[in-house]
Amino acid sequence: SAKANGRNGTHLFDPKAPQTDNEDRNLAIIVAQAVERDLLSLVYQPIIDVSTNEVHAVEALMRLRDIDGMTIAPSAFIPVAERTGAIVQLGRWAVRRACSEILARGLAPKVSVNVSAFQLREASFPLFVAGVLAEFGLEPSTLALEITEGFDIASDSTVIQAVVALRRAGVEVWLDDFGTGYAGLSWLQAVDFTLVKIDQRFLQACETEDGARFLQDILTLVNNRGLTVVLEGVETAAQLAFLKKFGVRLAQGYHLGRPCASDMLSAVKAPAKAARAR
Ligand code: C2E
Ligand code: MG
Ligand code: MG
Ligand code: MG
């Protein structure tokens, strides 16, 4: 089967394992029923200001429990949801849940929710987001939406208009996994992002001199455009020291905090406070 032992003793579908059409269909059925059958949850990973050790925001990451109670990784079910169109329903669920679970309870100053570019093709999405913010009486700037350059949205006027509407409503729009999508730099020019998350592969590549120079070049580009930067995938103390040396303030990764359920968020903040006291 395509199931493998994942982190934290959970079982994850291995997205690289060949899937039969049957498995794909089963997954599509689970995805279609996910909201109704309460199979979804969000875990949250802190984005840390490494100059103060404060939590700048938490990123909401979706988990799907299948009928047997196993956890399915987003890399397996998000592409299926995008193919079937269920992503629209899943994505709305995530925005509402993150707002109620984190912001309405004051568990973090800001929450970022991943949004598929497909969701932005839905003209009513910005109105939905504004409705959720109003429902919970939230300051719009406490919500950020992370978009990955999944397809060439820079030339999709519906998507661009959705981003404009969201920015007008005061919501932050972040570019996720910068440097990995095929539309690349045109996005950065076409869309009014507030922040750019630089994919973990660029930090990993810093072990070589050329890799380090390349990251420096990316940072220069992003900084010159007046954008805030988050470095993703900080796994070691050496990488943390490295990004500090580069003047990067915001970072995320297993070394700084693993994704966890919302009830554990005070535990996420605790080590940060301890580190500051030292
Ligand atoms: P992403 O938005 O770039 O999220 C970062 C991924 O890297 C997460 O995987 C996170 O658990 C993992 N990660 C965090 N720190 C480290 C680290 O130090 N090292 C390594 N190797 N990995 C780290 P996850 O939760 O499996 O999510 C994978 C992707 O699925 C996300 O990438 C995002 O693109 C997508 N996704 C997750 N939740 C949602 C959602 O609600 N909606 C949509 N549309 N996509 C989602
Ligand atoms: Mg993300
Ligand atoms: Mg992403
Ligand atoms: Mg990312």
Automatic annotation (TrEMBL):
UniProt domain EAL: residue ranges: 24-273
The UniProt record lists the keyword Membrane: yes
Top-level taxonomic group: Bacteria
Gene Ontology MF term list: cyclic-guanylate-specific phosphodiesterase activity
Keyword set includes Cell membrane: no
Keywords: Membrane, Transmembrane, Transmembrane helix
Protein name: Phosphodiesterase
Organism from which the protein derives: Jiella endophytica
